[in-house]
Amino acid sequence: MFVYRGRVAHNTLYEQFAEAYARHSEHSPANAYYDRPAILALAGDVSGRRVLDLGCAAGVLSEQLVARGATVTGVDREPRMVELARARLGDRARFEVAELSEPLDMVPTAGVDLVVASLVLHYLPDWHGLLTELGRCLVPGGELVFSVHHPAADWQGQGRPDYLSTELVSETWPVGGQDVEVSFYRRPLSAVFEQLHRAGFVVDTVDEPRPLPELSRLSPDAYAELSTKPVFLFVKAFAVARP
Ligand SMILES: C[S@@+](CC[C@H](N)C(=O)[O-])C[C@H]1O[C@@H](n2cnc3c(N)ncnc32)[C@H](O)[C@@H]1O
């Protein structure tokens, strides 16, 4: 069983406002024009690949992976999110309720070629248990593609005195016309890469992309923000072959 030094952040946003978050995420500039396009670009050609989608929420990214020919298993800790994902994709993908701080027993050893984790890892205090488990789930040489809040954004936004610490912080986000408090772990850049290295992942790409160009027409303010500030950090890493 994994041992975490801190508690896994639990957010009412994804539990009680699942529908509102699903609607928001489907069209929001940060999700639809920045995060998902960047994740899909790093994932590359997924046709025929077995993909595990961590923190799949209502399955918007999963649906785009399925449309590109992937066989997708999505997992999320929130049962309502999993219901929404199942309603969205029917039998075109498999969705399970799973807590990422616990073993992913529904995934056989070497059962997936690619893991995507869009905007979920910052809810975990320590990644070692999960990354070790992903090393089991992935085929040797398999890929992990993820996005997290950019460490510079969280540090600056939170105005915290100690950049180098990893700490649980909170923000208020406007979702579906209401303000919802969300808690997550703010961590320095070095902690992101130390955890990958310690769990046997080799980094292939670090990306700080601009949003899709069409956002400049649809939402000039959001385009300006996402084009000029560090908002999310994107990483692609390989699971090294087990001995
Ligand atoms: C920002 S959303 C992810 C967006 C999603 N990837 C998409 O493309 O729409 C974060 C999701 O991670 C899930 N989550 C957060 N912490 C989790 C944990 N410890 N285990 C499993 N799922 C978690 C939440 O329930 C939520 O659905």
Automatic annotation (TrEMBL):
Protein name: Class I SAM-dependent methyltransferase
Pfam families named in the record: Methyltransf_23
Source superkingdom: Bacteria
Organism of origin: Actinopolyspora mortivallis
InterPro entries: SAM-dependent_MTases_sf (IPR029063)
Keywords: Methyltransferase, Transferase
GO biological process annotation, one example: methylation
GO MF annotations, alphabetized: methyltransferase activity
